[in-house]
Queue: 2 jobs
Job 1
Amino acid sequence: MKAPKFNYVKAESRSHALQLLDELGEDGRIIAGGQSLMPTLNMRLSQPDTLIDINKIPDLGGITLDGNIVRIGALTRHVEVANSPVVAEHLPLIAEAMPHVAHHAVRNRGTIGGSVALADPAAEMPACVLALGGTMVVESVNGSREIAAEDYFHGLYETARETNELLVELRIPAKKTGDISVFMELAQRHGDYAMAGLACVARINGNAFEGLRLVYFGSEDKPTLASKAVSAVIGQAWSEECKEAATKALEDDLDPMANLQGSSAMKLHLQKVLTGRALDTAIERAEAA
Amino acid sequence: MNKESPAPILDRPNSYVGRTLSRDAAKRAVAGRGRYTDDINPARTLHAAFVRSPYGHAKILSVDVEEAKQQPGVALVMTGAELAEMCTGPWVGTLTCFDGMKSAPQYPMAVDRACWQGEPLVMVVASSRAAAEDAAEFVMIEYEELPVVIDKETALDPDTPAIHPDLGDNLAFEKTIETGDVDKAVAEADIVIEDTFTFGRHTAVSLEPRALLAEYDPGTERLTIHTSSQCPHMVQAVFARTLGLPEHNVRIVAPDVGGSFGLKIHTFGDEIATIAASVKLARPVKFIADRLESFATDIHARENRVRGRIAVTKDGKITSMDIDIRSGAGAYSQYPRTSVFEANQILNITGGPYAHENYRASTQVVYLNKVPTSQYRAVGHPIGNSVGESLVDQAAAACGIDPMEFRRRNVMHDDSYPRIGAAGIEMRDMSHQQCLETLVERMNYDALREEQEEFRKKGVQRGIGIAAFIKGTAPGPSGYYGAGGAPIATQDACTVKLEPAGGVICMVGVTDQGQGVDTVMGQITAATLGVPIESVRVIEGDTDAVPYGGGTYASRATAIGGEATYQAALKLRAEILEIAGVLLQAAPETLDIVEGHVVDKGDTVSRISLAEIGRIGHFQVFELPNHVQPTLSATHRFRLRDALYIFTNGIQGAYVEVDIDTGFLKLLNHWVVEDCGRVINPQLADEQVRGGCVQGLGGALYEECVYDAAGQLQNATLADYLTPMAGEMPDIEVAHIQTHTGVSELGAKGVGESGTGAAPAVVMNAVNDALRPFGGKISSQPMSPETILKALGKV
């Protein structure tokens, strides 16, 4: 379980990294926190020609509030996100999700950009970014572009980022007054990849959902927005019947992939359970607010 | 408790025996100063990596190693056929005590056919492990895939191919025992319950993987092997015999061992290959299994299906039990300990706590194209206890009797020993009743039942589980290994020496893997000799130093090695007192040893120190009369005489909460009351029980080696094979009842596996207690959320 030989280049700056990415194309691989890449290297599941280490690039991390957008540099470690007062205040969904991201040791080293760039379908951050309607900023030698989360996640470990592009920043709309968010996931052991999970952002008026985004992870090939379940809920007074309608509609939104943790049917069942619980919780939180 | 102790010296006030002392080795380990096999790096060490079968079953058509040999840093590439030529012959993993057992000849690396995914085929030895792995990618092997046998249920069907055609079929072993008349008991019973239980494959997952460093010195023809082993003398015999080397020229050293759990009582083909490479190259060669290799080559265990039946009277008396076991072994029976102990132990212990006299058990062990199976902590007990205790719970429910009360009515009485258990094995010095009543008290059982009801009213589903158990510990020579013909010692020995400066060296055949065996032996020595614990140094894990012994397995270290140590220390003590008597002109029986000084009995004033006796005994021997020739060294060997095992007993309780919507479990509390006889070090005994429970809970909830239909192991990483972690584990409250065993003077029985043996049973019973109002029932492990949801009809 030793990595095969590879070349290693420490990128000194953003432009250096972009230049390397452009030159190396498919042969180059970015390493940030290394929490997912290193095991695959050691198991020889991936054999990149050159690792481009972006850890020392100075202006790729940090969390700032810019108007009503929270900007999170791609190299920001999970632990910094978890401890950030800006995130706690303006992105409570992410703050709630953070303790579920693996364990302390992984959070100390792993980065939010790495998580979003890898697009593991069971990871928390892609789901949160999508639920919050965030935007990914990617750069290449040809310039930068912004990609909405809806357009960013294409499938299993597939994203809209081109091989010569570096994910540099996440731009996520800050919580507006009255926004309610709920994050839930089910993992047999704390810190494991989720068997099923849900990131939910809602606007609630009295007992009814006025606006709602439900993003499921851990069951599909990518974080998945549910439209039919949302339609079944919007504008209705929240009730057991409404919950039943929403979970029924979820069958048309999701098509879970079976894995070692469970069958497709079980994952759908769990996502339904989480839907009911998350929406109950959202109503409770709205009442408490 | 014993009325009159046969070892009064250990019962003195402030005795080191019965006292919690921390382990020296723990301080080193937590400071990161442990010295494991991989920490030892002699000059010019080479590293081995292996090409392993990617198929569950395949014929090897050709092997081309030429390009691999040309790779940078490569010193040797060896094929299975080349290694076979260096061996005295293939292994055959049978023991004569298992009538009719058969196993195919097995070479350390496959020669012409690979029988499980992960079986070693070619070894590459190079300047670093990375270089060896790089070169291994250049080994070209042509395979022809053969049909795999994966399902134990169909392994004996006539149309299933035999993995080893010479054996005729895939049957490794079958056995049936019967006592009393089960059919009659069933026919006359008021209630008969039947169920079928299935158990997934597990593996040990020791934190330190298998590790071996072989250093052959062609000048002296001596071979020194550092290896992470529980049984240095056994592996000495196996390694030497397999490679045709004189046993006394092979030194085995087990340095710090980072967990073992039975895994490290075994020998593996890649280890033989590594040693052969060192002999061939006359250089140190190291092999450290990586995690992937650990999953794909360490012994597996626990894959069993058991049909069980219990017959009871309506007032709750068990009249019979019978079970039928289908046990899934791997492609070969593991040499030399075999792959049939597990099934045999299930047969020995199921329903073991109870007084019924009608019992039938049959088993068939079948070969599969999977990793070979063998002994793993609490061999067979988690299965036998889960089956027996689930049947008991179901019978209690059918009778409408509380499961604790049901057990109270059926356990063997504490005053009924010695007696023969239902499986025909002698039981003695046991305490089911006392353990049960202690558990009732510790759990606050009635109040807990009330609390459970209160929670139910609130829609929270909690379950209470009970599981009584017996555990075979410290096997004797009349049993399997001794009578079976294997080079595995069931006796163990200790040599205790008084050094010139008054220090004491205690050399034991039993070994430490982090559980504190060395600390325990030191406590016994210090207490028996009457010296401060600081003056005792324990040496273990080196065949050049310690007397021949079996090492640590089957919960035997304290029970067997402890008695040997106690008796050796008594002998040395007698010699010291005799010498002191001569020097002091006093009768030895009027003297005593306290805190390293010889004193008059009943007094604490030093008459002569042990350092003085050491000085005189080693240097100024002329101070003694000619007829006194000090040895200041004593050796004692101990073995069981007639007993098959020293059986221990106990009972566990569990309190769990089941989320009936998600199938997720929360373990709230766990209790163990067990009887390991005399407790030497309470904290170490407690932690053995706790660690054992956690290992059992891992198997009950998470762990399973999953194979697909082609014989590919699906989850050979720690991300996919889930082991228990502290966050999910309950507090585990431990209590000991100390009924000393009569087979030794020390009175200690085994303790290391008691947690593991019944933890799966008790948590399964607790889950089923929670599910009972919903009509759901679990009969398979691991109990994943999906298993629970299926039992509830939700998926």
Note: The domain at 37-146+208-297 of chain B is CATH 3.90.1170.50 (Aldehyde Oxidoreductase; domain 3).
Job 2
Amino acid sequence: MDVDISIRVDGDTHRLSVDTRTTVLDTLRERLGITSPKKGCDHGQCGACTVLLNGRRVNSCLLLAVAHDGAEIVTAAGLAVDGQMHPMQRSFIEHDAFQCGYCTPGQIVSAVAMLGEAAAGWPSFATPAGEQPATPDSGGMRDDEIRERMSGNLCRCAAYANIVPAIREVAEA
Amino acid sequence: MRPFRYARAENVAGAVALLARSPEGAFLGAGTNLVDLMKLEVLTPDLLVDVRQLTSDAVEELPDGGVRIGAAVPNSDLAAHPLIRRRYPLLSEAILAGASGQLRNMATTGGNLLQRTRCPYWQNITTPCNKREPGSGCSAIDGFNRDMAILGSSPQCVATHPSDMAVALTALDAIVRTEGPSGERTIPLAQLHRLPGNEPQRDTILQHGELITAVDVPPLPYAVRSRYRKVRDRASYAFALVSVAAAIDVQDGVVRDLRIALGGVAHKPWRATIAEQALRGQPADPDQFWAAASAEVAEARPLTHNAFKVPLARNTIVETLLNLTGISG
């Protein structure tokens, strides 16, 4: 069964007909040629496919495109503005926060959204009971907060030792 | 993935009617679990009725001091909600102990309750599984069963319920509101999920086409000090080996009332009624906690690889109660 949908990706509107079985990830990569979201596990476990869906970070491999007609999606490629890298992208480069790079677009989208969640006052499992979470505005984030909030993004090269400082630097900026 | 039709309805009644006419259909919430199981062909619905826009996505205060959670409230929003964090911190903690930031942004309250077991044999269509294919046998009982149930299992199925949120809501005596082909009803959460018995294919008592519309949490003033303690193989993003949701009201050294529920040990969130009864009215001290927790797991029937869960469950209950009461063990 094919269904007509319209999605907006990194500022551009796309209208297309998709099989009901097609995920948002496959729509982006295979139908629209937008390859910054990566297919790692395809089961919502690794985070390589992370995109912003209507402003929130999600695993695009678990979203059926048909259920997200009209959605606004931002990929890692769409974080750059006027050809200028997003501060998180620059920080990942400066900290050498990757090896093979396959998980990196998902890591960067997730990190940007995660800082927004913390700034909005969302607690994490690492937030001490009864306390407001540390935010970029309240003097940066502890490494355990960053690690907990980023636990949905796996890096099998184990570049975590540089990913955490890369994110911390943006959180403190 | 097998082909399926996709449909939306104007309202809950329309969605219920659509599904009632399609015995092989399923409701689609966020799909974080369902879509994955469809990729694996563990589930092969021929129709998905999208209900994500149909139920409330709001958390509301009830006149009795409780809280009503719309079925479409995302897990992230529920965990961060000021009312939940203030009145029921164990619920916020339980949600934040589960899944990842991305998944919690998608997953809904109703869908979280109805997520399926992560038993690897259920998720693998090449292995026998009574839950997936009744009568085919249980691969887990004599297989790799480290993660399986120790309480309430049957010779047919030893799977566990994976939700953290449901464990906290069970401790809180939550009420599930549904609308189905037979109308609306309310179900105490403790009765929503089934033990496997001879019908492990049925996770819950819901009828086909019955949709969760909201979850009501009754007032529990002493839950302002409550806790969700999760023991797992990794510090984050792992299912529970054992978890404990607890709240306890101690006055003048005596346990006035308490709530304990366990995760990771049974086919459903396990309300620790034996331990609760043993402690109510008793002195709040480590020996009483130890005796009550031991009584709760006395009926445990561990398998080849999960006997460790019995002392782990006992100790985690004791540790959580000690922590909540400020008593040092």
Note: Chain A touches chain B at residues 1, 3, 19-21, 23, 42-44, 47, 50, 53, 56-59, 62-64, 66-67, 110, 113-114, 117, 120-125, 127, 129-130, 147-153 (CB under 8 Å).
